[in-house]
Amino acid sequence: MAFQQRRIKPFLHSITSGLFLYLAWHSAYPVLLFLAFIPLLLLEDKWLKESGTRPRLNVLLHSFIAFLIWNVSTTWWIYNSTDWGSIAAWILNALFMAFIFWLYHLLRLRSKQRLAIFALPVFWIGFEYLHLSWELSWPWLTLGNGLAGAHAWVQWYSYTGVLGGSLWILSVNMLLSRMVLAGGTFIEMFKSKSFLIALSVFIIPLAVSLGIYYTYEEEKDPIKVVIVQPNIDPYNEKFSGNTSDQLYKFLRLAEGEVDSSTDYLIGPETCIPNSIWENDLDKDANIKILKTYIKIHPRLKMICGISSFKAFQPGEKRSATARKFVDADQYYDAYNTAMQLDSTKKIQLYHKSKLVPGVERMPYPRIFGFLERFAIDLGGTTGSLGTQETRTVFESSTGNAAPAICYESVYGDFLSKYMRNGADFIAVITNDGWWGDTPGYRQHLLIGSLRAIENRRSIVRSANTGISCVINQRGDILQPTSYWVPDAIKTTINKNKTLTYYSATGDVLGRFFGVLSILFVFLLLLPKRFFPQ
Fold first, then answer.
1. Nearest to 189 by CA among 171, 173, 175
2. Number of domain units in the chain
3. Do 183 and 129 lie in a common domain?
4. Secondary structure in 3-state letters for 272-304
5. Which pLDDT tens digit goes with each residue over 165-187?
6. pTM for this structure?
């Protein structure tokens, strides 16, 4: 019996960490994030004191179990849109996280100095920064995102970005684990120096944030906006139904709210689902319908999503994602595109550039290219889509909009480049219907609050099936629609031209910890004699 208990207890630690991370994620229990790593840290310390290969592998195995529980329980809804892709995402993400925890353990094995305990936040935040940048990017479970449901706690994201939240969470976890490891009675532990420091590290940022939240006031620079949620089923209607009928449904919903004073009309991602050739935009029948509507409301600017193609001219340099015409020696690119129309002849376009791995872009195609046939058919644009280098701001005399398409709103540093290019509000256009009525669309919505805080920009959010809403500059979600209900919102938001520290500099914290991570990996490669014991 004692032998069985010894074997079961480590797994209970792993399961506890995984469940704490799940329960904390966008729920009523965000405080659990500050406790979730403690069971794993206690296990790691136990095996640190043992010798041999098995303890090292135990750290890798048990941390993988914890992180797999977290990944599957929190993002199980991905399965609704891609079965094999979701399984790959859960396993790879859990492996990446376990590997980071294992690196921390190896460095502590190599160096018994107290400084080594700081390796976990260094490696972890370095990994999160990498995960925001490389082709296998899936940063949904960036630790700092877990506080999106408690956005009043993290108003200082306007300085640090979401990675500041990750550092906060890990710091408190490590300090509390030191308190437990020091031993003693409960009273002695809560009187210990480690607990007092942990309490300070938790309370001070919280108090600062609440102070900012309750004193922040938006400058008055209003524009009037109408947001439409047409509610077209992406699986059974959107890409197989009549496009004109869908477009008229969108305009009928808008007409109930648009008036002569409306500045912007916002529609969702792929509002026009059939592909439009960018070389002949003015000739497209759907564009003509929208232009005719704007003639009735000449003040109006319309931002919505389209699927678009662009043919490369003879001699023009082709992109890495260019596709060859079946019947001609010519190439074209397919895009997930945001478009702004107004009463002028100018049509402004932006191509989605943070693409969903395995769905809109096949990461490292030389390795994973054989999986491309499993990608979702996004209205005839299966496979790797084209992107663009710059963040195009939609400009007008009324305002400058940052068009963020769906998944792009998860990337703080990426989105901040719009603000540096002059955006004074953010328009998120998305289609969250791929996941069904699951936590996925609610998580995506809450993460948007963090982008509003980081940049102090109002967000207008049009989601095809919901939730559409307004998010103010301190991250409050206002006028949310119901899921899977056609609707339209009439609202007024304030623009803001001032750059926050985060908007101006991006993920400084991520870059700093990324460099430190490389240095720490270098330390692991040094001979053991360089480390005093």
1. 175
2. 2
3. yes
4. EEEEEEHHHHHHCHHHHHHHHHHHHCCCCEEEE
5. 999 999 999 999 988 888 767 77
6. 0.93
